[in-house]
Amino acid sequence: MFPALETELKQQTLPDPYEDFMYHHLQYYGYFKGPTCLSSTVHRQIEAVNRDSLMLSSPLLKSRQLLHDDLGEVNARPREPRDLFAFFSSSEPLQAPRWPIECEVIKENIHHIEWVPPQPEYFYQPTGNEKLPEIVGEEKGTVVYQLDSVPSEDSYFTSSRVGGKRGIIKELAVTLQGPEDNTLLFESRFESGNLQKAVRVNTYEYELTLRTDLYTNKHTQWFYFRVQNTRKDVTYRFTIVNLLKPKSLYTIGMKPLMYSQLDASTHSIGWRREGDEIRYYRNNTDDGQQPFYCLTWTIQFPHDQDTCFFAHFYPYTYTDLQCFLLSVANSPVQSQFCKLRTLCRSLAGNTIYLLTITNPARTPQEAAAKKAVVLTARVHPGESNGSWIMKGFLDFILSNSPDAQLLRDIFIFKVVPMLNPDGVIVGNYRCSLAGRDLNRHYKTILKESFPCIWHTRNMIKRLLEEREVLLYCDFHGHSRKNNIFLYGCNNNDRKFWLHERVFPLMLSKNAPDKFSFHSCNFKVQKCKEGTGRVVMWRMGILNSYTMESTFGGSTLGNKRDTHFTPEDLKSLGYHVCDTLLDFCDPDRTKFMQCLAELKELLQQEIHKKFNELGQDMDLEGSWSDISLSDIESSTSGSDSSLSDGLPVHLLNTADELNGRDKGTSLGPSKMTTLILTKNKERMQREKPGFTVSCSPKRNTNPSQEPAPDTKPNWSRNRYPATKGGRTTAVVYPSLHIYTYP
Questions:
Q1: Are 417 and 378 in contact (CB under 8 A)?
Q2: From 6, 153, 548, 686, active-site residue
Q3: Interatomic CA distance for residues 332 and 434, integer angstroms
């Protein structure tokens, strides 16, 4: 019909060599579920050219990367990224966790139900008569469970595979001699499990040894293991013998968690706080290196022949996260405003997910005007508290609540729900498979050793180049203090004096029985320079925080002396959203009210400090010039600085470089540069991030807003928003959400 046009179109439909290669390459590795090859598609396009229906409106005349309206001329918008990953679809299984090849993994799938205790779970009240068992060890006891191959500080991570170690999985538990044999059968070779050895020292008494973080000799805190062959109405005693922290919440009433499978299946009862005669004390054995501490407790199992689990805190695994993200990706509603992408891959090859949550903007100008909020969790794998707060935040922000819709209208949320999936999978407490605490390496240039940290910082850096980041918060757990609180960074700009404390104070007013403002600290210590909150603060984010949630419970208000449940922590995620709206209310009454209260509190603190020093000063007119860091104590945090430094697999290289010139000591920056140069040929070539597919599947419960707790009598005058006038979110381009590293 149009000969000249037909010739031109035939030339345009010839396969692009690069595209053809990439399709074959991605399909070969299983990342693209498209046609067998491009040729069939191209042939169909060429045949279409020969039909009379070929007109200027043919899709062959349009860019493959832009979507047009029916007229083909206006409202062009970018096409959605191709669905490269097939594991997030309703017809495909989840991506199986990848383990270091040294780790044995049982084939059973461990799953626990969620449950809210009908009554508050109070702290244990010591009687003073608790027994302190003497540690006898395997010399006088019988080893009933022991991991054979555990990577130690003398080795380093080399490779991983789904299912961990190859070969037949050994039966590590003892063989029962008959139905009368009442020996407990232990197991921990499952996701997030941690137990290295169990020694039976009496009929119903066991000494337990925890596994250190892989490729280290430190950080024994997290435990999670299974016992079988139980007997009811019998008092058992368990004693963990190799804990490393001299102080613990177990000394002030915290109880371990227990889960009964029979109770779960018959009565829908989940994790609950159990234990009696709880004591935390120093181990009487001395290996000449570092002191160990013991945790002992007694328990009576509810059933005979039950399968029970014990844990330091409510587990939240990598598989739990993937199941949740799958439900979001398959929701036709939530997937419209929550884009799920791959931030990077971990050392073991597990996917680190990045969620971008925002309602599509009506114009590019509206999209550009949105401020960003960045939230992360589980950089420390044993702090599952962070995942439960993150779960509560995501449940609310993805709901159909009017406040959630308003937040999505005015903010872009960048969320990394699990920064350290490798550590979570293997049951580490603090480190990644590099054998280092990732929350001390946010300034790193070792992209291949600390990929999740490097890519997170790079993502935030790029985000700052395009818009203001109003708030950054990293969710953690705390092992020595009750309640929930924030660590922030004192601002030196007098224009914004005390502004970094407003959000925490507002949060304490919105969650008065959980959040303690008096436990917050804003001092920037030298040993914390590599943490996420300090690095992001120095990058220009004024409101940069670490949220610490206790492993124990609350000492405040109506929840005083009770343990936190997952529902309590999830409600904190809701309160973060609620406080964001208060913090950004155009009516600045609440903001200024908090600022005035902060000035009064600070003045009282300064007077208190001078009184403690025995000095009497007239601070009128000059008290606000005093450095805030001078009146604050340190954050009394962790020993995680012990896991700072180069990743373990580079230590030999560092020793070689230092040994070249005995008279020269290389600084950290120069050392890192030399190592990068030396290892340049061994570095893998960076690959582009892949897109996660989102297959539609209706979510039956999109709104899960918890009931708010008692709150101050603040007016709820928020952003004026005319929801009824907004058109369907799908039709508007959201240009900003495709800028991923």
A1: yes
A2: 548
A3: 39
The structure tokens 């407990």 sit at 184
126-179 pLDDT, tens digit each: 998 899 999 998 889 999 999 987 777 678 899 999 999 988 888 887 888 888
Instruction: Indicate left, alpha or beta for 309 from its phi (over 0: left) and psi (-120 to 50: alpha).
Output: beta
**Dihedral angle, C-alpha 35, 36, 39, 44, nearest 10 °:** -40
**411-416 and 371-377: which strand pairing?**
parallel
- Tokens 């291949």 appear where? 448
The rounded radius of gyration (Å) of the Cα atoms in the chain is 28
Rounded to an integer, what distance in angstroms lies between the CA atom of residue 99 and that of residue 346?
Answer: 11
- CA triple 197-124-209, angle to 5 deg: 10
- Rounded CA gap, 287 and 387, in Å? 36
510-524 residue pLDDT tens: 999 999 999 999 988
In three-state secondary structure terms, 331 is: coil
CA–CA gap between residue 582 and residue 528 (Å, rounded): 30
Q: How many CA atoms lie within 13 A of 521 on its CB side?
A: 17
- 548 noted as active-site residue: yes
Q: Where residue 728 falls among pLDDT bands split at 50, 70, 90?
A: very low
Q: Tokens 């009240």 belong to which residue?
A: 125
Q: Is 324 helix (H, G, I), strand (E, B) or coil?
A: helix
Backbone angles phi, psi at 335, to 5 degrees: -70, -10
Question: What's the half-sphere exposure (Cβ side, CA atoms, 13 Å) at 305?
Answer: 4
What 3-state DSSP class applies to 161?
strand
The Cβ of residue 645 has, within 10 Å, a number of other Cβ atoms equal to 17
Q: State which amino acid sits at residue 113.
A: I
User: What residue type is assigned to position 672 of the chain?
Assistant: T
Q: With b meaning 16 or more CB within 10 Å and e meaning fewer, what string describes 485-503?
A: bbbbbbbeeeeebbbbbbb
Distances (CA, A) of 208 to 220, 299, 382, 479: 12, 15, 18, 20
Tokens representing 356? 């971008």
Q: How is residue 526 written in tokens? A: 């030298």
Buried b (16+ CB within 10 A) or exposed e, 693-705: bbbeeebeeeeeb
Amino acid at position 329, single letter? A
Angstrom CA distances, 48 to 6, 45, 65, stand at 10, 5, 20
Q: Do the strands 257-260 and 308-311 form a parallel or antiparallel pair, or are they unpaired?
A: antiparallel
| Tokens of residue 128, six digits | 């003073």
Place of tokens 């501490």: 293
As a whole number of angstroms, the distance between CA 306 and CA 198 comes to 18
Please say whether the beta carbons of 144 and 596 come within 8 A: no
Q: How many CB atoms lie within 10 A of CB 345?
A: 18
Q: Which two tokens stand for residue 397?
A: 């922000």
**Residue range 405-439, pLDDT digits in tens:** 999 999 999 999 999 999 999 999 999 999 999 99
Cα–chain center distance at 497: 31
- Contact between 548 and 484 (Cβ < 8 Å): yes
Least confident among 10-19, 303-312, 445-454, 545-554: 10-19
Helix, strand, coil share of the chain (percent; to 5): 30, 20, 50
For 147, phi then psi, to 5°, come to -70, 135
pTM of the model: 0.78
Specify the pairing of strand 224-228 against strand 185-187. antiparallel
Question: 3-state class of 367 per DSSP?
Answer: helix
Q: Which two tokens stand for residue 455?
A: 């890519």
